[in-house]
Amino acid sequence: MLAIYKIEIERPLSSLFRDSFGRVTEAMGFKTVMELAAPDTGVWKYQKDDFIVSLHTYSAPKQSESLVIESHTYDLTPLISATLKDLLVSQLAVLLDPMDGATRNEIEQGLNTLLAGLGLPETEV
Fold first, then answer.
1. CA–centroid distance for 53 within its chain
2. Which residues fall within 8 angstroms of residue 39, CB to CB, at 6 or more apart?
3. Measured CA angle at 44 (ends 114, 82), to 5 deg
4. What's the pTM?
C-alpha cells in the first residue's frame, strides 16, 4: 500500500509544516534516519519499527514549495492530522497570546472537535 500526501504551499508555511511534522513524528515514536537539505530541496526519512515515512520538499514556481509525504507501509492519515493540529495549535497560541483568553489545551480540544467533524481521527500530540 503506497500512501502519498502532496501539497504546494508558500515557503514560510512549508517551513512551519516541516517543523510540526518533525515534532509529531518524534512524539509518535519515529526516529529521524536521514536528513538531506540543500538549496531548494530536502529529504527527511523517519522510521518506527518496520514503518518508514519520507518527507520530500522542492521549490516550485512563484516562490512556493511542494511537500510530498509518502510511505509504502504506514497509513499517513493520523500523522498528517496530528501535524496539521500541531501546526494550527502552535500558530493559534502565538496569535492568541496577547489576548490571553485561550489555553493551549482549550485550543487543542476545539481542534479535535473540528477534526472529528471532518472525519479525521483525534490525535494526541
1. 12
2. none
3. 15
4. 0.75
For the chain, the first-to-last Cα distance in angstroms comes to 26
Mean pLDDT by 10 residues, the chain (125 residues): 88 88 95 90 94 91 87 92 88 69 73 74 62
Would you say 107 and 92 are in contact if contact means Cβ atoms under 8 Å apart?
A: yes
Angle between helix 104-117 and helix 77-96 axes, rounded to 10 deg: 140
Residue in the structure block whose three cell numbers are 494526541: 124
> What was the pLDDT predicted at 32?
95
Q: d(Cα 22, Cα 111) in Å, to the nearest integer?
A: 20
The CA-based angle 107-74-38, given to 5 degrees, is 80
- DSSP code at position 72: S
